Amino acid sequence: MRKVGRTYRNFFAAFLLLFFVFVAGAARAREEKIILRVGHFPNVTHAQAVIAHGLSRDGRGWFERRLGPNVEVQWYVFNAGPSAMEAIFAKSIDITYVGPNPAINAHLKSRGEEIRIVAGACSGGAALVVQPDGRIKTDADFKGKRIGTPQFGNTQDVAARAWLRSKGLRVTMSGGDAFVLPTANPDQLALFRKGDLDAVWTVEPWVTRLALEAKGQVYLEESSLWPETKGRYVTTHLASSARFLKERPELLRKWIAAQVELTAWIHAHTGEAKGILNDEIRAETTRALPPETLEGAWKRLELTDDPVRASLLKSAEDAHRIGFLREKPDLSRIYDLRLLSEVLREKNLPEIP
User: What is the DSSP track for 90-107?
Assistant: First the structure.
């Protein structure tokens, strides 16, 4: 009996040991659960993020499958770049897809301590659209005209003002030889239809909508202004908080690697990708893009992991020259492409110069 009792006690002790090891392991797993908070806009120029968000919503998470079981991706949808940047400052999100000028402004606002661009996402998509009635036929015809842009100081607003100045027109913040009128995209379309705007400098899908719904004519493709980058210029890139880059470099590296794979998948499966994109745009805005609008917008965009940094640096110079930035911007720390370079090297893809 003593032997049986001793065996029982040994078995019970072993059971307790295994039980506590299991409980401790489960608790540790719960403690190691990582929540990654990601921002984007409900726009075709943020295609990788919108498509990935759609796959997450459908239970087929692209990033989730590549980041590991302990990582939960939480998506946050913004309608303006400054809001996304403020969310990074408030530590409400970790990374976000955003345009160049909001990233520049936020980086300078933090005196270079915050905001790191870690990868590209989209190039192109912007154009100058004019009324179809012939009121603008040459560059000189822009004198005295009203040109709409999406937002005061945003990427297209800076581009429009810089281009008008390059044509010899005096453009101030509130007037001059030509009048630049920052107006929300939906309002631009309505005003353009009524003839109250003579031209609009905007980005997809609004370029295509102006052409299809208001018979606007594309006067200038912004790509023509970038010979030094062979027509490429940054529209959207992936920006990280400096804190997240420092504390979770391996997780960010996995995200960038997954994005590179997603960009390649989109190029190889364009039809399916556009379907997922439009379904998610509908989920986020209650309205999908008409097929002809999506097709037109898609042709003007290039999804790329290259941040096309030369275009951002020139955009910052333009913003300084026309008075949006008081001091010459120091952007020496805004890019950190080390992780992207590692990923591209690992995948035997061309590195970013």
Answer: TTS-SEEEE-HHHHHHHH
- Measure the N-to-C terminal CA separation of the chain; round to a whole number of Å: 79
Residue (of 284, 281, 316, 313) closest to 297 by Cα position: 281
Three-class SS of residue 323? coil
CATH number of 126-229: 3.40.190.10
CATH code of the region 31-124+232-346:
3.40.190.10
The SS3 call for residue 214 is helix
Write the CA distances from 93 to 37, 71, 244, 251, 259, integer angstroms: 5, 15, 9, 14, 18
In the 3-class helix/strand/coil scheme, how is 243-274 assigned residue by residue? Answer: HHHHHCHHHHHHHHHHHHHHHHHHHHCHHHHH
Distance (Å, whole) CA 78 – CA 74: 13
Q: Are 305 and 218 in contact (CB under 8 A)?
A: no
How far apart are alpha carbons 236 and 331 in whole angstroms?
17
Residue pLDDT, tens place only, 212-252: 999 999 999 999 999 999 999 999 999 999 999 999 999 99
Read off the pLDDT of residues 94-139 as tens digits, 9 standing for 90 and up. 999 999 999 999 999 999 999 999 999 999 999 999 999 999 999 9
**What's the pTM?**
0.87
Q: Which residue has the tokens 């705007």?
A: 197
**Which own/partner contact pairs does 341-346 have at CB distance under 8 Å and 24+ positions apart?**
342/253, 343/253, 343/256, 343/257, 343/260, 344/260, 344/305, 346/257
Dihedral sign computed on CA atoms, order 251, 82, 101, 328? negative
